[in-house]
């Protein structure tokens, strides 16, 4: 049976196979043709057709009522607080939905129950153009090439290509030189932290006294800058690099630190920006000292130099070395010793 | 011939009398619209529910345009900071936020109908992507991408990618905490690209993340660049669809040389027009009853807070899951330069491979079948077991990645260990698609054998007859012409046959190695196959007598050639 079905000339069309002279194709079933048309109830029963007509008309009527209803809701129920806005949205939207669905169901029901259900057959023609058309097309192209003289005049070809290749630069150069700001990617390396910067609570900016932190407490920390500076957009960009998570644990629990001496009496501060792709690492588990990134679940062990214990990050969170000043406030001893956040090509250069 | 002569030549009877006729005449004299009407008014479209999936995509795009214009009239894409002066929602009053976020609140709470439009817009985006993906599944599994539609498949792929881009750029516009963290992930992914990563990050954000430009840039991308490209490609997609005429499912009278169905006017005008209103109506219902992306619950973007259990929109889940599954050990430092394969592989290479598979599949299949004919009759998925298996394997990988994108929710809902789920999904990502492929292929071959059996022996009638000699049989009813045709009308391709390595004179043939590779791939596709029943086989089955159907001996004998070919070369 398999030889009946030569893959190089298989065809679902029996006639075509005969035309191609493939004898083996003869052992295939013949197409029974388009199935006989079965009349619908609405085709044979005038009563049913009348009923369908009334249903379609009623659906259009419901749609009109929905449109009017939505306008009533629009004017009668203005938005306001969350609850009023919800109600306004609900009623206005329901009216709109009824008006739209009414039209849609009516049109489809009309088509399915009342419009002619006779199937028609159209011929398809090969997509490729006929040989005659192709010949005319090729002649036209050759004629055009000859008329333009581009084949004979090599100088023109070179000049055209050269000019076309250069003109995009007039757009690309100003675009590329401006679009990246100052292109100074070295900014990744520095944050607002420097020796003596005080640690402050995020977001209110209150300073943090070491004595106020009990063992087990966690604080989200920003560098202390003047309050008006925190109202600028520049601050958001700086904050995106400078945020720190502060944890006070039993000093004996600290197994290792990235920067020895960077902690103060069991208080450790690590960059809050994940070394994977930069989400804020915000879920701290007190018992295990694990810090979990909610975006991709990289897990860092704060008691062990913030090393990665699970997940897609490779590097530990950079540590911010801290101490206390004369007044007992926590201050940074230095900036981070490496770029915070996700890795990039020239990170170690 | 001058116009005056044409006019004088017009037969008087052709002069229109009715208002519609006069309007048509006016228009036709200036646009020759008659030609288009003649061509398209009674154009035949085949009918099938799955052909509506692409329509849903088109209509939800129209809804996106309508609701998007409304939103664009009120949204302000500025990152300048303001104190929110609106009274609603009360939790946001007096907060410092970007104008983008403030105008989002304003158009939700102060503009009448604004929240409805926002919710319709967001739901329409989700439905748009869902329709595109299911439409692609229909096209893939039925082989509608075969010649002459390969290029339209590519256009559709581009539309899908642009849809992702449109969704991503729009999602980030309100400048809220959730989408801001999404942008930060994007920044991290971009930075992982070797050599140019940092500069690409600056290119996108106009400096360091987040900077002050990104919202305005995304706005231009979202309302101008991407929709213009989508519109142009939809135009091309539909133009090619009309040019090729729609594919049709197999059935009596349907061949590669005709199209069987109903005329555009009036049946499809009503059905398609109605379908637009149905799509819009359902989206309005969703927007009215299901709140989505309540940004005032998240607050304006601030680089410090983050929500646990946050999910991206569904079409981005696979990327998120891919990032979550990758173990972190794969970041390397080579000669002082950092290569973050732990980000590059899941966020760039895996999606790249998935999309490449979809881009090249039609061309690979054309090559391994060696078939250069036009195909307008669709395949039943069972009749191309390897294609169907590959499609299901692809979907399995996609779904596993999407589940991984929700692994934290799975963990909290089912009280399971997050680490265990992640490990299980890491393994499943490799094993799952292989198993899915194998099972699907087996099911397809099984269904094909079932088809053979039905054609040869008919349907079980449930009627038990006892013969005089005490033998019981169940009477089988033979298939009618239409059903039999449906079950036998397909080609079972065989693996490619290639010319030998050396020609008649023993000279080595160029390109033999490449041919050999294609032949191997072709074998993978077609060495297990079930041939359709031929009339002579049916006649042979009948000659055994009407009550042969109980005898499993006959059945085995009949099914043997097909069964044997697949078992002896089990892979």
From TrEMBL, chain A:
Its main location: membrane. Gene3D superfamilies: Rieske [2Fe-2S] iron-sulphur domain (2.102.10.10). Residues 25-47 are annotated as: Disordered. Its cofactor is [2Fe-2S] cluster. Keywords: 2Fe-2S, Cell membrane, Disulfide bond, Electron transport, Iron, Iron-sulfur, Membrane, Metal-binding, Oxidoreductase, Respiratory chain, Transmembrane, Transmembrane helix, Transport. GO terms for cellular component: plasma membrane. It is found in: Cell membrane. Residues 265-331 form the Rieske domain. GO terms for molecular function: 2 iron, 2 sulfur cluster binding; metal ion binding; monooxygenase activity; oxidoreductase activity, acting on paired donors, with incorporation or reduction of molecular oxygen. Residues 28-47 have a biased composition (Basic and acidic residues). It is a multi-pass membrane protein. InterPro entries: QcrA_N, Rieske_2Fe-2S, Rieske_2Fe-2S_sf, Rieske_Fe-S_prot, Rieske_Fe-S_prot_C. It comes from the Bacteria. The chain crosses the membrane at residues 55-77, 89-111, 158-177. Belongs to the Rieske iron-sulfur protein family. Iron-sulfur subunit of the cytochrome bc1 complex, an essential component of the respiratory electron transport chain required for ATP synthesis. The bc1 complex catalyzes the oxidation of menaquinol and the reduction of cytochrome c in the respiratory chain. The bc1 complex operates through a Q-cycle mechanism that couples electron transfer to generation of the proton gradient that drives ATP synthesis. This is Cytochrome bc1 complex Rieske iron-sulfur subunit.
Automatic annotation (TrEMBL), chain B:
It comes from Xylanimonas oleitrophica. Residues 23-250 form the Cytochrome b/b6 N-terminal region profile domain. It is a multi-pass membrane protein. GO terms for biological process: respiratory electron transport chain. Residues 536-571 are annotated as: Disordered. One of its GO terms (cellular component) is plasma membrane. It is an enzyme of class 7 (translocase). InterPro entries: Cyt_b/b6_C, Cyt_b/b6_N, Cytb/b6-like_sf, Di-haem_cyt_TM. GO terms for molecular function: metal ion binding; oxidoreductase activity; quinol-cytochrome-c reductase activity. Keywords: Cell membrane, Electron transport, Heme, Iron, Membrane, Metal-binding, Respiratory chain, Translocase, Transmembrane, Transmembrane helix, Transport. It is found in: Cell membrane. Signal peptide: none annotated. Residues 543-558 have a biased composition (Basic and acidic residues). It catalyses: a quinol + 2 Fe(III)-[cytochrome c](out) = a quinone + 2 Fe(II)-[cytochrome c](out) + 2 H(+)(out). Its EC number is 7.1.1.8. The keyword Zinc-finger does not apply. It comes from the Bacteria. The chain crosses the membrane at residues 56-75, 120-141, 153-173, 214-240, 276-296, 343-364, 384-403, 423-440. Its cofactor is heme. Residues 251-446 form the Cytochrome b/b6 C-terminal region profile domain. This is Cytochrome bc1 complex cytochrome b subunit.
